[in-house]
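Task: sequence design from structure.
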């Protein structure tokens, strides 16, 4: 794919984010697009966000669980980038309009904060745990700039792994103090059960997902850096979000996280 087209599509996605609009699927318009093209489109869009004043603070892994893969008809993980404008405090009331959310869905996840760099290839789950300062429960609010979530893997990769905003719970837990694969998460929406899952839903163990990310990004010369937050993927199926919704979650050994939405 030509560099000009990569830049053009990166600009389209950046503009869609800023204007609260969606686009026809890239894969319908450009069936020749490959995964490498999609990653470079994502990087082009990230560069525009940085030029607009945003700061890179982490990365995210998406489509890690079978439940989410089946829901979106996407059958391999993807990755995206987290910026400071995407992070909201625990318990925030988030305005859908102000946050630029178009067709949001909530995911309950485990966040990792790194105390040292990880650069693939060759990173293992044990390397991830050794490099992690703390883990915490979090909500990621995914969103798509693609019409009606009609995404294939290339569409979501190009669209920053369908990332919207995220909230991290207040707990800061040593990852070696519990079995992250056995963590049980319960999610409530408007005080009603809305989903549940185990840490093992994420590639067998959340640290395995982070290792996959380190190794995949390593192929592009991109490290996971000390101080960055890494969102490791959803433990349960995605939950639709509307203005007026309140969400909370608890995770064994990790504490809780909450978020609510206003117009």
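Answer:
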């Amino acid at each position: 794919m030509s560099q000009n087209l990569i830049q053009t599509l990166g600009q389209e996605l950046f503009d869609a984010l800023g204007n609260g609009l969606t686009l026809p699927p890239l894969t319908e318009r450009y069936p020749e697009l490959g995964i490498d093209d999609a990653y470079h489109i994502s990087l082009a869009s990230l560069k525009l966000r940085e030029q607009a004043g945003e700061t890179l603070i982490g990365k995210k892994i998406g489509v890690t669980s079978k439940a989410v893969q089946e829901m979106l008809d996407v059958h391999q993980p993807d990755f995206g980038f987290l910026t400071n404008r995407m992070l909201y405090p625990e318990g925030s009331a988030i305005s859908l309009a102000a946050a630029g959310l178009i067709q949001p869905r909530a995911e309950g996840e485990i966040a990792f904060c790194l105390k040292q760099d990880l650069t693939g290839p060759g990173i293992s789950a044990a390397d991830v745990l050794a490099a992690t300062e703390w883990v915490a429960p979090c909500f990621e609010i995914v969103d798509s700039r693609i019409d009606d979530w009609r995404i294939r893997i290339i569409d979501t990769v190009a669209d920053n792994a369908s990332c919207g905003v995220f909230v991290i719970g207040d707990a800061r837990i040593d990852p070696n103090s519990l079995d992250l694969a056995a963590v049980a998460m319960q999610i409530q929406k408007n005080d009603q059960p809305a989903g549940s899952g185990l840490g093992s839903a994420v590639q067998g163990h959340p640290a395995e997902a982070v290792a996959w990310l380190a190794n995949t990004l390593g192929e592009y010369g991109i490290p996971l850096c000390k101080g960055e937050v890494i969102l490791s993927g959803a433990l349960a199926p995605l939950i639709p979000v509307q203005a007026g919704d309140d969400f909370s979650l608890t995770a064994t050994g990790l504490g809780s996280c909450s978020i609510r939405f206003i117009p």
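The longest helix spans residues 3-19.
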